[in-house]
Amino acid sequence: MDYQFAAIEQKWQKFWAENQTFKADSNSTKPKYYVLDMFPYPSGAGLHVGHPLGYIASDIFSRYKRLKGFNVLHPMGYDSFGLPAEQYAIQTGQHPAITTEANIATYRRQLDQIGFSFDWSREVRTSEPGYYKWTQWIFMQLFNSWYNLETDKAEDITTLIEKFNASGSADVKAVCDEDVQSFMPSDWATFTDEQKQEELLKYRLTYLKESTVNWCPALGTVLANDEVKDGFSERGGYPVEQKKMMQWSMRISAYAERLLQGLNTIDWPEPVKEMQRNWIGKSVGASVRFKIDTTNLNTQDAIRNTDFIEVFTTRVDTIFGVSFIVLAPEHELVQALTTDAQKESITNYIAQTKKKSELDRMADTKTVSGAFTGSYVINPVNNELVPIWIADYVLAGYGTGAVMGVPSGDQRDWLFAKHFDLPIIQILDGQKDIEVEADPTKEGKYINSDFINNLGYKEAVSYLNHWLEREGVGKAKLNYRMRDAIFGRQRYWGEPIPVYFKDGLPYLIKEEELPLMLPEIDKYLPTESGEPPLGRATDWSYEKQYEYELSTMPGWAGSSWYWYRYMDAQNDCDFASKEAIAYWKDVDLYIGGSEHATGHLLYSRFWNKFLKDLGYVNEEEPFKKLINQGMIQGRSSMVYRLSVLSKSGNIKDSYFISHTLYQQYKKSQDNGLLAAWMIDFESEDEVSISEIHVDVNIVHNDILDQDKFRQWRPEFIDAKFIYEDGTNSKHTKGIYHCGVEIEKMSKRYYNVVNPEVLAQQYGADTLRMYEMFLGPLEQSKPWNTNGIEGVFKFLRKFWRLFHNEEWVFHVEDSIPAKAELKALHKIIKKVQDDVERFSFNTSVSSFMIAVNELTDLKCKNRQVLEDLVIVLSPYAPHICEELWSLLGNTDLSNAAYPTFNPAYLEEAEFAYPISINGKMKMNLSLSLSLDEAQATETVLANQQVKGYLEGKTPKKIIFVKGKIVNIVV
Asked: Which residue, 43, 89, 520, 736, has fewest beta-carbon neighbours within 10 Å?
């Protein structure tokens, strides 16, 4: 029987599911290998062909590792909390759980159809109460922990309380808020429970704090930076503004140095590591206090008993060049420092800033804007007055929310100073052309710098740091750009935060009360008074008297620990047992997108380190090796409508012109072409051309199916075409060539290709191999189905190897020929090398070569073909399972990968090129065992060589073994 892929694939997918073929054993004596994919958010659109790329690669590697004798854990689940389901719920009134369940069913069907070797017994869904119970539990551990700088790890909050009881706050070295109190043990003993709770909140690893957030009024929620683009929400395109809100935060900054150093221990793509390094933003510098001048302020109380502005700088040596101070528009002192004369301009500027996201503010380096507060600070090193401005390039959450402007040494400061006519002070004799641009040099000696004049850079920095500390106005400091992570969303479809409020302070519910379930509500919008959707819940309170937290956790909460749940997914007593964690340890291979570098990947490392500090897990880093798969881009098909408009603007005639004609007309703008194409056109008429995306599923090899196009949309029912040769569809039916654009795969561009359609048309094995064949895994590449038939024909040819002319299964138990073993062992070695370095695309072409060689050799040898089945099975598992069964075997997934024998690739003979006086005349096959004397003797005895020599005696013979023979006469 010919290759019946549909029946074969359904048979083996059913077999794998019923027999739980890929269920991992946590007690195996085999070495473990944990392969993980970034689990998907199940959207209503389902998968397109770009989504499975990383899954196919991880599946090939997982199957290969099983063949290599490893106990492989390859799980899959769903990141099933999210804003899209909630937005759909708002629009339709349908509960997000119903939408999510339907979307998951679609994803599961599509994933099964591609034949992945997932261990579905360990499936997780972040929106299941049995899962988010443990997400809430981890939150509780964070709330009950603090970061001890002496031990450099998180500890239970009780150890901090013990320190307070024993010695007060004096000897506590912790990562904490800046406004912690200084107290003796006796003072602590007199604190009320509320006062103690309030003080401890300043140390906890998750805490409440007023933060500047991306607030989207239309969505009624806070958005993460990566959910905002150009001041609008990525979801829905609604305006986003900066707003101060009381929010839960996580003290990820406590782990800044460990997160930074850990990057040196993991095998990740360098660009991802560099993104995290930049996000963490370690810098060595100094903290400087600029005293506020209160002369122009109404009262000293206006600045809330704070008499200075603190600035962190990496160039303390430039402090004599400061000509202005810039505060973030959200800085807590802005209102107090604004004089009456400046109030209107400051208010207007702050309103404009709220329309921009933080990412936009950081990225815009060209626009110069700002507003003067009317107030001044005093430079501590020379007592000069320095004006205080606000500008949107300074962010409240970065450093202290204030920077000192040194225009001679920093280009952004230079542009600001030029724009607002502020002084530009030269501070080093090595600075050049500072009237033209800033010069950040550290070379030369200091000038205009009082007591550091004539010093070099290192001397000046050392002297200033000591001077600032001695004078009590600053000190040397290590700073990190990374801020604490906001951990709250004003949404419904997320994990409830297991907290209630008593007298305005947060308290945890009891562990035995987990999970705190999402309550039912009537609508999924914020309340009329502006509370989050959970404010709509009725009879939802703790112990019937205390209000629960109404925000839910952010999307990254459930994904920050999910790989541990896969280790022991059915455990009701722990998030995973100690035994399972000890066995699986960490993820050996993680495949997913680089877009998560400063989100999920960073937060996961943070939670992992925290869990290790408390002794719940054993590894410092969660993911040993990371691979970022490239994006499969859409290959859009375009048609070109040329319309002739009368003087009055009415359409007289309209045709779709083929791609080459479109290019020709676009280049020449010659309306004379229209007559050649038999289009009715008069001199007063105008021509309009529009490019239209067309459904790629009605285009094959860039040729449009005209009948399907006319049926595609009602307005095209009477479409007329002009073909490449200029002929007109009124008279004949020709071939219409579409244009091509490479774009994001999206419904908007009609370029989405459903993997189900291709699997039904060509088979899952063809789809798997073709996606790998498109190019290197890490590179982005356009989707193009033009070559998929070639892969299908290869699999059919592979199937043919095992059958005779009548398609009857037929193999022979003969002794393999040398040529057969050579072809086999070449592919064994090639695939082994390719898979180990994740070069899957080169393997596909090598398989084609191997099958062609064995076909030419008419190979029917059981031993050779059996090993070939094993080698190909990670790539095309269905066809290989069927052939493995026909060969009389069982359990292909636990077969042993064939051992490569280099002896089979050694050549016994070589076809030497024989040259006379440097001119190649012929090839002569000689045994490679011959030495130079034996080889030259054999060459000279050859009758054809004698004919070329014409009786002449060689003067010299140049012999290079395995290369050439050159006879000089």
From this structure: 520
**CB distance 213 to 222 below 8 Å:** yes
**Separation of CA 281 from chain center:** 20
Residues 6+ apart with CB under 8 A from 502: 546
> What tokens appear for 938 in the block?
């054999």
CA dist 458 → 554, 700, 825 (Å):
45, 68, 63
Q: Which amino acid is at 320?
A: F
Query: Rounded to the nearest 10 degrees, how much is the dihedral formed by the CA atoms of 891, 892, 896, 897?
Result: -170
| Phi, psi torsion values for 293, nearest 5 degrees | -85, 120
Per the CB < 8 A criterion, the answer to whether 631 and 50 are in contact is: yes
Number of H helices, E strands in the chain: 31, 35
Q: What pLDDT does residue 382 have?
A: 96
Q: Report the DSSP beta bridge partners of residue 245.
A: 211
Q: At 479, is the secondary structure helix, strand, or coil?
A: strand
pLDDT of residue 674: 87
Instruction: Give the confidence band of 462 by pLDDT, cuts at 50, 70, 90.
Output: very high
* Token pair recorded at residue 834: 């390719």
* Cα–Cα–Cα angle for 268, 274, 279, rounded to 5 degrees: 120
pLDDT of residue 126: 97
Full 3-state SS string of 391-405? CCCCCCCCCCCEEEE
Per-residue pLDDT tens digits for 621-675: 999 999 999 999 999 999 999 998 988 778 888 899 999 999 999 999 888 888 8
Residue 673 CA: distances (Å) to CA of 579, 669, 681, 732: 78, 9, 10, 19
HEC per residue, 322-371: CCEEEECCCCCCHHHHCCHHHHHHHHHHHHHHCCCCHHHHHHCCCCCCCE
Instruction: Read off the DSSP letter of residue 791.
Output: H
Q: Per residue in 509-546, is it b (16+ CB within 10 Å) or e — as a string? A: beeeebbbebeebeebbbeeeeebbbbbbeebebeeee
**Amino acid symbol at 241:** E
Can you tell me the distance from the alpha carbon of 156 to that of 141, in angstroms, rounded to the nearest whole number? Answer: 8
Strands 474-480 and 282-293: antiparallel
> What confidence tens digit (pLDDT) does each residue in 161-203 have?
999 999 999 989 999 998 899 999 999 999 999 999 999 999 9
What pLDDT score was predicted for residue 400? 86
Nearest-angstrom CA–CA distance, 588 and 619:
12
In order of 28, 138, 575, 616, 621, the CA distances from 579 in angstroms are 12, 19, 12, 11, 18
Beta-sheet pairing, 385-390 with 308-313 = unpaired
Phi, psi of 131, deg, nearest 5: -90, -50
d(CA 493, CA 508): 21
**Do 720 and 680 touch, CB atoms closer than 8 A?**
no
CA–CA gap between residue 483 and residue 638 (Å, rounded): 46
